[in-house]
Amino acid sequence: MSDKDLTQKALLRLPDVFASLINFLIFDNCPVIHPDQICPLDIPAQFDYDFSLNPVYRDASAMVLDPNGHPSFIVNFENQTAHDPTMPIRAMGYTDTAYFWQRSQLIKSSRPSLPFSLSRFVLSLTIVLHYGKDPWKARSLHEIIHLEQTSLLKPFVSNYTMNLENIAWWDEERIASIGSDFRFIADYCVQMRKSSKAGRTRYDPPAGWKIEHVEETLMTLAAFSKDEALREGCWKYLEKFKLNPKKGETTMASVLDHYFEKKEKLYLEREQQYLIKEKEYQAKEKEYQAKEKEYNEQLKAQTQQIQEKDLQLNEMLSTFVRLAQQRMVEKGMSAQEACDTLGYKENIRKLVLPYLIS
Questions:
Q1: How far apart are CA 153 and CA 148, in angstroms?
Q2: Which helix (H) or strand (E) holds 100?
Q3: Which H helix or E strand runs over 48?
Q4: What is the pLDDT of residues 252-304, one digit of tens each?
Q5: CA–CA distance from 47 to each of 50, 74, 97, 287 (Å)?
Q6: DSSP character for 161?
Q7: Distance of CA 290 to the CA centre of its chain
Q8: At what angle do helices 214-224 and 252-331 cross, to 10 degrees?
Q9: What distances in angstroms separate CA 286 from CA 54, 204, 297, one per listed residue?
Q10: What is the helix (H) or strand (E) element at residue 303, kind and residue range?
């Protein structure tokens, strides 16, 4: 099971969140159902199993008790982030599973301890909560199995249309009236739908909404969010920062402001460190340039000295050659004889002789 699945279920399984959604979706947001009337159920699917062949449980399922504590009806909530053309069949299966569970409870001689006594079947319904941006039209069983090809059988096939809620298309004023932290999830979905074409990536929560269940709400937002800054903010807040009730009520805006303030402070610290390192680098660069300039000047001076010495040597060589040539012309001597009379040493001879013509 994915982390996203776990966190979504954690929020929906909170009694106050579950009750608020029932009131919002079924009773026109009137406070008919209270959290103490919600009895969570873990009803395994009849046919769904994980890779270990363990039964898969519904996202959120609960028995709703009447004011006297007697079973009244069962509600199953199922999370969907993408369209599934087979969803009517799946939703019908979830509803049927709840009836099969009731049947097993009614016929068992020894029942597990429950906080209520089940003596008859009660109504079971499934509501699919769709969190995606694109609206999803609820389809019926008849549409999926294409009964038009066997129209004569249609009277014998009961139709089933899934109960579907496109959360991203809920009215904002109605969302604000939800009496639980689920309004943050709904508000996020609406904001992301409206801002998807505007290029905005950051969620701006209402400043005055108090969070009752900080961990479950932040984890759910982090799971749903494709906003890296929001996701990181939620997880960092949960990992590193503890709530302090003395500082006042916790709101989503204060949580994210707290995170982004910390992040901004960290950014400024890192920027300051970068500026210091940049200054150090510039100072070293300046020092290097000064040394390079000094080296180039020394190299230039040495080159000039070498050139001057080469010039002097060339002038001396020219003098030696000219003197030898004069002896050869005036005295009729050979090159060797001219060098001998001038007293040239062997190293001088090697330089002068190539320029002399015998």
A1: 9
A2: helix 87-107
A3: strand 44-49
A4: 766 666 656 666 555 666 777 787 888 888 888 888 888 888 888 888 888 88
A5: 10, 20, 9, 76
A6: B
A7: 47
A8: 50
A9: 69, 47, 16
A10: helix 252-331
